[in-house]
């Protein structure tokens, strides 16, 4: 599932921009992603910097904070759901290739055609027909079609986003699905049904809803009986509260908040009270029946949830900067041990290195206004040139000249290396390269 955290509802804050900036796509006919060549086109916007993170699999490295949480969650599901022989019934998929189609990432999950999350300013497209998954839920229908009814997906996901201590273009999610056929759900009450008697399945109903037709009824989907929904809701909430207690302690205070996702109805977010504030932990809900129909599954109901590993790890281990997860510094990595989970593991700063901040101002082309410039395009250029030494990028000024009508922007770029002190001369050299690249890439004039 997607978050706010990882949640798709965050995109309601966005509006569809008129993307007139020049593309950041490679100047070649093909691009290699996950050892496969893809043709490039006008949609291609993956940068070399983003490609450099593929295959690192930090969420699988023993004693890495993300791997510790991954294993805790997997172990919890292995122990919670077992068959009569005592074997775990949840399958785990942690090496699925991140390249998916728009159908997998959006259409199959009923995400509207006009939803801002589909835009080039929010996703990394390989080409018009492929992109790097924006959430692990992109594999949901394929796994359901393969016959699986209980599974976890773990993997890296990609979003074009702002640059600061809590956002990174590559992060990791765990997604879970559990479905139950009527015979299992009502094994003790065979007279009950999952579907209302006047409901008829229709494969043609598998169409993304329009934004104006959101399923906001938190009671149930029209097709489901109240008995079926309440049983699944009870199991889902019981399982996830116990998961929260496993991670945060048995006395953790929690609450459920109604939410909206295109692929579940009703939907909820689980929040826990942690160190004086409510923390949004995960998104969940009863799976939309259209998704099950499209997978060829009948007389079945399901629930799903998704959680982002980085934000969870930053909270539990008090890690202040999301870039640290990619560090190879032994001083960072040696602080965490899987066997010590639950013993109040807390990140201890290796050292506190000073920040260096430089501003970059430029005039936009004559036919471009400040709202036409896509900030994520600028962020990708900064990442490509400077890599991970950029701690934050923020737009600090917009200006329109009263006489000429020309518009200008000013960005502040904060540099800080995670493993050494940067000199101002080093920063100035990198900043100069960013300036030159921005000037050429976007046809702007430096102020």
TrEMBL record:
<keyword id="KW-0547">Nucleotide-binding</keyword>
<keyword id="KW-0496">Mitochondrion</keyword>
<dbReference type="InterPro" id="IPR036690">
    <property type="entry name" value="Fdx_antiC-bd_sf"/>
</dbReference>
<dbReference type="InterPro" id="IPR005121">
    <property type="entry name" value="Fdx_antiC-bd"/>
</dbReference>
<dbReference type="GO" id="GO:0004826">
    <property type="term" value="F:phenylalanine-tRNA ligase activity"/>
</dbReference>
<comment type="function">
    <text>Is responsible for the charging of tRNA(Phe) with phenylalanine in mitochondrial translation.</text>
</comment>
<keyword id="KW-0648">Protein biosynthesis</keyword>
<dbReference type="InterPro" id="IPR002319">
    <property type="entry name" value="Phenylalanyl-tRNA_Synthase"/>
</dbReference>
<dbReference type="GO" id="GO:0000049">
    <property type="term" value="F:tRNA binding"/>
</dbReference>
<dbReference type="Pfam" id="PF03147">
    <property type="entry name" value="FDX-ACB"/>
</dbReference>
<comment type="similarity">
    <text>Belongs to the class-II aminoacyl-tRNA synthetase family.</text>
</comment>
<dbReference type="GO" id="GO:0005524">
    <property type="term" value="F:ATP binding"/>
</dbReference>
<keyword id="KW-0809">Transit peptide</keyword>
<keyword id="KW-0067">ATP-binding</keyword>
<dbReference type="InterPro" id="IPR004530">
    <property type="entry name" value="Phe-tRNA-synth_IIc_mito"/>
</dbReference>
<feature type="domain" description="FDX-ACB">
    <location>
        <begin position="351"/>
        <end position="447"/>
    </location>
</feature>
<dbReference type="GO" id="GO:0006432">
    <property type="term" value="P:phenylalanyl-tRNA aminoacylation"/>
</dbReference>
<keyword id="KW-0030">Aminoacyl-tRNA synthetase</keyword>
<dbReference type="Pfam" id="PF01409">
    <property type="entry name" value="tRNA-synt_2d"/>
</dbReference>
<protein>
    <recommendedName>
        <fullName>phenylalanine--tRNA ligase</fullName>
        <ecNumber>6.1.1.20</ecNumber>
    </recommendedName>
</protein>
<dbReference type="InterPro" id="IPR006195">
    <property type="entry name" value="aa-tRNA-synth_II"/>
</dbReference>
<dbReference type="GO" id="GO:0005759">
    <property type="term" value="C:mitochondrial matrix"/>
</dbReference>
<keyword id="KW-0436">Ligase</keyword>
<dbReference type="InterPro" id="IPR045864">
    <property type="entry name" value="aa-tRNA-synth_II/BPL/LPL"/>
</dbReference>
<feature type="domain" description="Aminoacyl-transfer RNA synthetases class-II family profile">
    <location>
        <begin position="69"/>
        <end position="349"/>
    </location>
</feature>
């Amino acid at each position: 599932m997607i978050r706010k955290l990882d949640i798709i509802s965050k995109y309601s804050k966005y509006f569809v921009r008129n993307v007139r900036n020049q593309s950041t796509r490679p100047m070649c006919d093909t691009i290699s992603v996950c050892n496969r060549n893809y043709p490039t086109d006008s949609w291609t916007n993956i940068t070399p910097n983003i490609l450099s993170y593929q295959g690192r699999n930090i969420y699988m490295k023993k004693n890495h904070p993300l791997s510790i949480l991954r294993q805790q969650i997997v172990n919890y599901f292995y122990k919670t759901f077992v068959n009569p022989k005592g074997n775990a019934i949840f399958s785990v998929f942690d090496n699925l290739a991140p390249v998916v189609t728009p159908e997998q990432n959006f259409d199959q999950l009923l995400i509207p055609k006009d939803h801002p999350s589909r835009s080039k300013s929010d996703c990394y497209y390989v080409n018009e027909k492929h992109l790097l998954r924006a959430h692990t839920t992109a594999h949901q229908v394929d796994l359901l079609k393969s016959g699986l009814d209980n599974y976890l997906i773990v993997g890296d996901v990609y979003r074009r986003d702002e640059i600061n201590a809590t956002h990174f273009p590559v992060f990791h999610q765990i997604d879970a699905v559990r479905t139950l056929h009527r015979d299992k759900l009502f094994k003790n009450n065979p007279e009950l049904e999952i579907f209302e008697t006047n409901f008829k399945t229709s494969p043609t109903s598998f169409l993304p809803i329009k934004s104006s037709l959101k399923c906001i009824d938190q009671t149930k989907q029209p097709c489901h009986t109240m008995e079926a929904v309440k049983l699944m809701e009870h199991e889902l909430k019981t399982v996830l509260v116990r998961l929260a207690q496993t991670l945060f302690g048995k006395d953790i205070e929690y609450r459920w908040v109604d939410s909206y996702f295109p692929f579940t109805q009703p939907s909820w977010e689980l929040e826990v009270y942690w160190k004086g504030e409510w923390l949004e932990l995960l998104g969940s809900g009863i799976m939309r029946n259209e998704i099950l129909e499209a997978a060829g599954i009948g007389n079945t109901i399901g629930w799903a949830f998704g959680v982002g590993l980085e934000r969870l790890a930053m909270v539990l281990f008090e890690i202040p900067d999301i870039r640290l997860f990619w560090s190879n510094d032994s001083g960072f990595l040696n602080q965490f041990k899987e066997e010590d989970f639950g013993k109040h593991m807390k990140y201890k700063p290796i050292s506190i290195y000073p920040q260096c901040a430089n501003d970059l101002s430029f005039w936009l082309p004559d036919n471009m206004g400040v709202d036409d410039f896509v900030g994520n395009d600028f962020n990708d250029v900064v990442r490509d040139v400077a890599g991970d030494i950029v701690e934050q990028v923020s737009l600090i000024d917009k200006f329109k000249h009263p006489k000429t009508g020309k518009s200008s922007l000013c960005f502040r770029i904060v540099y800080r290396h995670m493993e050494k002190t940067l000199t101002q001369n080093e920063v100035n050299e990198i900043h100069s390269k960013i300036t030159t690249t921005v000037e050429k890439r976007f046809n702007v004039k430096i102020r």
